[in-house]
Specification:
Number of helices: 21
Distance between the termini: 41 Å
Largest sheet: 12 strands, mixed
Oligomer: single chain
Radius of gyration: 25 Å
Helix content: 25-40%
Bound molecules: zinc ion
Length: 711
């Protein structure tokens, strides 16, 4: 999840009130005159204008309220009710709708306990403390699940404590360099900078007996600003729940990698869940509960950069404090429910445009994910209005409401695995998860769709002024997080679209099946992620009081799907793809050199990337001038992304087959580019690196051959 740019947020807050009643679309603002992929855009521009007029801030706000009325953890009766609500809305819009169940292995907490003692045996703390602030409306509901980690092992362990900062590989390596042995220890580390499962993964590799993961106020608490309910940041007792599944091995049901967990799947088809599950206890805690442990911790003072914002000097340990952890987890195969709504295409019914969002939440999930669901429902209603007027898309549109994303992308992964054959022809997977935590639009995509996302946002009005793209460009230019220099941003290219790593439901589509994917969101200060406080009251006070950004996201999300569904020529930009791959190869070469792997031969991969670029140039010209029977060209364009899959998958994680993008084994959320090559270089393994350079060159050659066959 992305954190925010406070300055831009304040600026926009001041402007919003003037637009509080803004909901109707100025007629002229929908009208892009051209769009890549359309030989003539005027008819489509009219359809888009009709669509853009439908999503309503008011209706989206009502849907958000309904979706967040109860805690709706995956596989609970409340979750089932949200599935039925979404299905009803899909049907009302005219989508052929089904609720698709899967039976998947997931844990629920029975008992979670943390106690800390000083060397004399005196109790320093006993928790977890219940999440509580003055005046939050939902916190006392008995259905609020106690904070726990999805995929945590059960266990009862006692040990000395070692502080590992963010639990990054470099943090653990720093401890090793200081000869701090982690065998039998309890590692305490703070949230941030990587996926929480990675923290547990490395701790397990280093022999730790258990892990406490806490939210430091420096990262999303009072150091950033006022905590909830004064402001948007994390209060003392707020806990970030979350999955510690080793999703960089494979996501989804741990017992069925590559296979769908349908209700009739026999037990004999399931495998040991060991492949993506931790074997040690991990428990998420608040800084209220972490503070007494960290304050008592002895040993040397922390290295530079490890000090958090609690009001005392941090120490690395061990010494001064012993912790007792109890984690009793009930592992069962539980039923989850995806909701799938389809509109059949007229010209290319087998070419699916898939657009999805998860529905399950750790608790109320107003931002994560209900803002995404509310936006999707308004996008679907917009499509429904077009259908009602007789419009039909050229390609089949499939809207998906995923379940059990929080436990490890389970609903999306199982559905993608079940529909793998059909998805070989899917032309887009468009994801939205956290649709709105504030006003700052952001996007990630495969390079072939980066310009497509920019174009779509140029056609959607911002609640502030101008288009979503204009606002996006402005905060990119004025924000500090993405720009090292003060140079003004002048051209469209300069608006940054990120790379897809993992942490949301695009992963099975892109990285397992090779479906070109995008992920969008609108960000702001958001300190209640995965806590009970991510509720409707927090949302309306902090993120989007008038639901104007829900409306905006409904429009962007829906327009992406519409524009792709009706395109004459698939608007993939392989020029950008080829250029980025060439840069990845060159950066890997520099890294190999710096790491002393000078013998590695990059020339074949470089030559393959050059040929890919030449083929991309030719195809780009064809796309721009296309007419007549375009089916062959479109098939070719789609096949090119699939050519980038390696049949054997990545070393040690065959489920991940994309040769250009994967979640990093040691980052989890962040993408590792040309992962086979880069991770082998990181591991100082020239043999595997050379072999993976060969795999990459072959993939690029396949893609080049496909592009060259375009007519
Ligand atoms: Zn989410």
């Amino acid at each position: 999840m992305k954190w925010c740019r406070t300055l831009a947020f304040l600026l926009v807050l001041g402007l919003i009130s003037a637009y509080a009643d803004w909901g109707r679309l100025p007629a002229q603002s929908a009208a892009a005159q051209t769009a890549f992929g359309y030989s003539s855009f005027s008819a489509q521009a009219q359809i888009e204008a009709k669509f853009l007029a439908v999503p309503s801030a008011k209706v989206a706000g009502q849907d958000l309220k309904t979706l967040t009325a109860e805690p709706h953890l995956a596989a609970t009766p409340e979750d089932k009710r949200t599935a039925e609500f979404v299905a009803e809305k899909f049907r009302a819009a005219g989508l052929a709708t089904e609720i698709v169940p899967y039976r998947v292995l997931m844990n629920r907490p029975v008992e979670v306990k943390v106690e800390a003692f000083d060397p004399a045996g005196k109790l320093l703390m006993s928790g977890p403390t219940r999440e509580h602030v003055e005046g939050d409306p939902g916190q006392d509901d008995p259905r609020v699940v106690m904070p726990f980690n999805g995929s945590s092992a059960s266990g009862d362990v006692t040990g000395e404590v070692v502080y590992a900062n963010y639990g990054r590989l470099e943090d653990f390596n720093e401890l090793a360099a200081r000869h701090i042995d982690l065998h039998g220890k309890i590692v305490i580390c703070r949230y941030g900078n990587n996926f929480r499962g990675v923290k547990v993964y490395i701790a397990e590799q280093r022999g730790a007996a258990g892990v406490l993961i806490y939210s430091d106020p420096q990262d999303d608490g009072y150091y950033k600003g006022d905590p909830w309910p004064m402001g948007p940041w994390r209060p003392a007792t707020g806990v970030q729940r979350g999955s510690v599944q080793y999703l960089f091995k494979y996501p989804g049901d741990p017992e069925t990698p590559g296979v769908a967990s349908t209700l009739d799947l026999p037990d004999s088809a399931r495998v040991s869940p060991d492949g993506n599950q931790p074997h040690i206890v991990s428990i998420p805690i608040s800084y209220h509960d972490a503070a007494p442990i960290l304050e008592a911790l002895g040993g040397p003072s922390v290295p530079q950069g490890w000090q958090g914002a609690l009001p005392f000097r941090y120490h690395v340990g061990p010494g001064g404090v012993t912790v007792h952890l109890v984690s009793k987890q009930d592992y069962q195969r539980r039923i989850i429910w995806d909701v799938i709504g389809t509109v059949k295409g007229t010209e290319y019914p087998d070419d699916w445009v898939v657009a999805g969002n998860h529905r399950d939440a750790w608790v109320y999930g107003a931002v994560d994910p209900s803002s995404g669901t509310a936006a999707m429902l308004e996008a679907v209603r917009g499509v429904g209005v077009l259908l009602h007027e007789g419009w039909r898309p050229k390609r089949t549109m499939v809207f998906c409401s995923w379940d059990a994303e929080e436990e490890g992308l389970i609903g999306s992964t199982e559905w993608a695995e079940q529909n793998a054959a059909a998805l070989e022809k899917a032309v887009l997977y468009s994801n939205v998860d956290v649709a709105v935590s504030g006003p700052d639009f952001s996007a990630s995509a495969v390079p072939s769709l980066k310009q497509f996302v920019r174009e779509v946002t140029q056609s959607v009005p911002s609640p502030v002024t101008g288009s979503v793209f204009d606002q996006w460009r402005m905060h990119e230019a004025t924000g500090t997080e993405h720009h090292e220099s003060d140079a003004p941003v002048t051209d469209a290219e300069a608006v940054r679209v990120g790379d897809l790593g993992s942490g949301s439901d695009y992963t099975p589509f892109l990285q397992h099946l090779g479906v070109p994917s995008t992920d969008i969101g609108s960000d702001g200060p958001y300190g209640v992620y995965h806590s009970t406080f991510d509720d409707y009251a927090w949302y309306t006070q902090n993120a989007d009081p008038h639901f104007l950004y829900l409306q905006e996201m409904a429009r962007v999300f829906g327009l992406e799907a519409l524009r792709m569904a009706d395109a004459d020529v698939l608007p993939y930009d392989y020029l950008t793809y080829a250029r980025e791959i060439a840069e990845y190869i060159s950066a890997a070469q520099t890294k190999a050199h710096n790491d002393g792997l000078d013998g590695l031969d990059f020339s074949a991969a470089e030559a393959a990337a050059r040929r890919f670029l030449e083929a991309a140039e030719k195809v780009h010209a064809l796309q721009a001038a296309a007419s007549g029977d375009l089916a062959q060209l479109n098939t070719t364009l789609r096949q090119t992304e699939a050519d980038l899959l390696s049949p054997a998958g990545l070393p040690n994680r065959p489920w991940y087959r994309h040769t250009i993008y994967a979640p990093g084994e040691y980052t989890g959320y962040a993408a590792v580019v040309i992962p086979g090559v880069n991770e082998a270089i990181d591991a100082r393994n020239p043999t595997v690196a050379a072999q993976q350079l060969g795999v990459l060159a072959q993939a690029l050659d396949r893609a080049t051959q496909t592009l060259d066959s375009a007519r």
